[in-house]
Amino acid sequence: MLFSKAITATRVIYLSPIFTRRFISYSSSFYTFNPFLPSRKSPEVEEYLGSDSKEIVFSIKSWFKRKDDNLIDRIFEILTRNGDLSSAELELSQLKLKLNEDFVLKVLNNGKDVLSCLKFFDWSGRQVGYFHTRATFNAIFKILSREKLMSLMLDFLDTYRTHKGMHRVRFYDTLVVGYAVAGKPDIALHMFGTMRFQGLDLDPFAYHVFVNALVEQSCFFVAEVVFKQICLRGLENVITSCIRVKSFCKQDKLQEGVTFLHGLESRGQVVNDHMVGVLVDAHCKKRKFAEARKLMEDFWGLAKIENADGLRSRDLVKAGRIDGAMDFLRTKKLLEGYIPDVFRYNTLICRLLRESRLHDVFDLLMEMIEENISPDKVTMNAALCFFCKAGMVDVALELYNSRSEFGLSLNSLSYNYLINTLVGDGSVDEAYQVLKDSIQQGWFPGNKTSSIIAEALCREGKLDKMKELVIIALELNVMPSDTVCVKFISSLCKANRVEDGYLIYGELNRVKKLTYKYTFFDLIRGFNRLNRGDMAARLLIEMQESGHRPSRDLYRAVICCICNMDNPEQQFLKLLELQLSHQEPSCHIYNFFIDGAGHAKRPDLARKVYELMPRNGIEPNNTSKLLMLQSYLKGERIADAMNLYYDLSDPGRKLNNTMVVGLCKANKPGLGLEVLKNLREKKLLPSLECYEELVRSLCTIKNYDLVIEVIDDLLKTGRDISSFIGNLILLHSLKSRELYRALVQSGFMTRPTSKSGSLTLGELVGLFSGGFRKNSHMENFDEIVEQCFPPDIFTYNMLLRRLSMADGLDQFINMFHKMVRRGYQPNCMTYDTIIHGLLKHGRRHEALKWLDEAQRRGFDVMENTKYLI
């Protein structure tokens, strides 16, 4: 009565015009590409579910609920609720159950999950006065086999074999049946041989289970031997015939199977629906649909053909002919009143879900309710997936939370749908809880779902939950995917939890070697930030053992970190020793260490490596000498650098340039100029960088006479003034008129500085440092600069600064727009210059507009500009 009311209520909800119209219009355009990505509700569905989702949940739950015995419900509630077996056993004992074979079988057959069934089987077998029978053993075997828990089943059987005296059932029969069901017919055959040697024999049931397992494992020769044994003992029956038909089908001997059925018919023996169905199924899998139909017609009057019809519809679905399968069933239903069973509905619904045909899924669910077909676990899982794909995540989650009420045990597909939908809905905590529940039930998500939830947890900074998830997986001997591990360790390192990242890395390595290159990068950089050079050095070696080659920058970062620790020399030499022990010594490795020590400003350590090379039979190459020279220069050991430079018999171009540039960066431009002059005397051509660094360092000390001398020498080489040198000249012209005076005194004012323009550098400096007369050169000042050197964004920033110092602010703004039109992208300094100039001239309102534009682009202004605001 209650169930019929629930169906009526469900129909009222589902068939109401507003629900049908709104839902179907939504689902018709929904989700045609990836079934695992979470959906979004349409506004109509959102509006409808706001008031009626609870009623939908109630109706579906009413349909799902099973009429189980209250006592059995109580037993499984105790087993599910209590993780501790001792607590569960105490509560079960208080129920004072009268254990016998029928009761135990009833409990096992109504089991809601495998773990609870195993707990009850174990508990009942230890109760005083009760012993498991062959039927109860078979029942637990079927449960384990159905859930594909073969390893657990084999452990169970091995334990059973070692305790022969404890059981009051046919010992060998149980073992043969158990190993046969577990997919180990070889062990079952061994047990069969042992018992026959002892004068024992199987009963009819065990014989048929055994021969069926042999056929399933394609052991056809042995199966024929067992078939003969069955016939010799007079045990042949309709089950034997069914297994023979299955054997013909598995051997692809379909015609022999058909002949066998006709032989049974001619001898007046039983031909049942199952035999016909197996042959029909085999023909359909070979896409022999016409032959399958003829076979059904041949045996129409001899057997119920509902099973064969159902198998035919299932095979049409598997062949991708989903519309044909639906038309076939509708025709049968219309003409013959055929009502498919729950298995046929499930086959259609699952395929329709894969194709995201939610309208048709909805129709089939309604059909099941109308025909009063009780849903099984597959139906429940399919309905849960349906609500996920329809974007009804609240309904799906409510059904999941109420799963114990009607015995819903989620499969992997449902877990995937639910987790992905919750993540897409932003309910990461709920998705995480569902995932934890699934792991406790023995299911761990696939790579795609793992990656989705891992990315969500890491993105939202829920690293402790992610850590717990990984540890649980490892405790269950499940290795998360490499993608999940890499994302998690990277997130921990970015959150400055590198110790936790290394801990997870170590735990994962115990299960499976984690060799992803960027994981090592993240961990090494993380330990470098913590000044843990010892750990960074260890990971550097492990990285190479995993087949990756560290870059020069990574070596440099690790060595610099070591040099910042206590007792750096010992750590440095230890790393070098380890490195040399892992691969053949070469200049390449020694050079990495010289370079790293140089960047750490430890030329003493670099020198030790340099001197170690010839002692180990390695001749320093030009790169070694270059890096050693740079080490001295960076460590400000100028005398040692000069000695090394002059000791070299024939320094190459790179060494010469390095010497000049290094001396300038070490604030020794005089020595750098001396080296450059020596090169010019030897008719050698220094690099442009040498001239640029000399100009920069000489401008820094305001020795403008030497600046002019260097520029003059640059022009004599046939080169033009670079943007870098030109910008330096303009910058110092902007600061004072000293450079201009030096140019006048040197006679450089009339010296042409560009092949493309008539303007000299002296005239440009005079124009830039002498101020502007009204409307003089203001609109095309960038074009004037182009006559001396190519401008860049730094040049335009200085032009804007110079224009902001003049009275004509209109030209100042026009220059900005002209710069943008010519393809130069404004930067932070550009906006700061404009805002500062406007504020200095009292145009605060305009300045605030420019400030808003700068902030929208992600730029901020300098402190002195903020002070004016």
Automatic annotation (TrEMBL):
PPR repeats lie at residues 341-375, 376-410, 411-445, 516-550, 586-620, 792-826, 827-861. PROSITE patterns: PPR. The keyword Glycoprotein does not apply. Keywords: Repeat. Coiled coil: none annotated. Transmembrane segments: none annotated. Gene3D superfamilies: Tetratricopeptide repeat domain. Pfam families: PPR (PF01535), PPR_2 (PF13041). The keyword Repeat applies. GO terms for molecular function: mRNA binding. PANTHER family: OS02G0127600 PROTEIN (PTHR47938:SF19), RESPIRATORY COMPLEX I CHAPERONE (CIA84), PUTATIVE (AFU_ORTHOLOGUE AFUA_2G06020)-RELATED (PTHR47938). Belongs to the PPR family. P subfamily. This is Pentacotripeptide-repeat region of PRORP domain-containing protein.
